[in-house]
Automatic annotation (TrEMBL):
BP GO annotations: 'de novo' IMP biosynthetic process
Residues that coordinate or bind substrate: S11, D14, R41
EC number: 5.4.99.18
Name of the coding gene: purE
UniProt keyword annotation of Lyase present: yes
Domain PurE: 3-152
Source domain of life: Bacteria
Organism per entry: Lacrimispora amygdalina
Gene Ontology MF terms in the entry: 5-(carboxyamino)imidazole ribonucleotide mutase activity; lyase activity
Name assigned to this protein: N5-carboxyaminoimidazole ribonucleotide mutase
Protein role: Catalyzes the conversion of N5-carboxyaminoimidazole ribonucleotide (N5-CAIR) to 4-carboxy-5-aminoimidazole ribonucleotide (CAIR).
């Protein structure tokens, strides 16, 4: 399938947050392109990118923005690709403003939204979307989920031993 994922930031100050998405995508060996585009300062560029994204080989767009956070919505309005919004925590409102702006989309323009600063989950969700049609990605997702489950089981077993000895 070989679709790539676009990670779009409203500002380069969002890079520390979006690194989680980039790292998740690299873990699944999914090609990723990272760009800075603003829904407010460069709306024409953002809209044109979204319009051409499918033809340019993208399968999912991840959009990270703080404050008014219209980036995911403006991209979603100009593409039929899945768009995942990452509301970024800014100095004001602890990211609540970005979260509300990202999840409150009008009917017909959906944006999947992860937690405030939840970039790692955005990358995983993008992998799950692409994994629907790519067995290699799907298998990697299954292996990592199995590894996480085994780690939890090991922690529980260790806890049970520690509790038993303390009683």
């Amino acid at each position: 399938m070989n679709k790539k994922v676009a990670v779009i930031m409203g500002s380069d100050s969002d890079l520390p947050v979006v690194k989680g998405a980039i790292n998740s995508l690299k873990l699944y060996e999914i090609p990723v392109e990272v760009h800075v585009m603003s829904a407010h300062r460069t709306p024409e560029i953002a809209c044109e990118f979204a319009k051409k994204a499918r033809d340019n080989g993208f399968g999912v767009i991840i959009a990270a923005a703080g404050m008014a956070a219209h980036l995911a919505g403006i991209l979603a309005a100009h593409t039929t690709l899945p768009v995942i919004g990452i509301p970024c925590k800014a100095a004001s409102f602890d990211g609540l403003d970005a979260l509300l702006s990202t999840v409150q989309m009008p009917k017909g323009i959906p944006v999947a939204t992860v937690a405030v600063n939840g970039a790692e989950n955005a990358g995983i969700l993008a992998a799950q979307i692409l994994g629907v049609y790519d067995e290699t990605i799907s298998n990697k997702l299954s292996m990592i989920k199995e590894k996480m489950a085994n780690e939890v089981k090991e922690k529980d077993e260790k806890l049970q031993v520690e509790i038993w000895w303390k009683m």
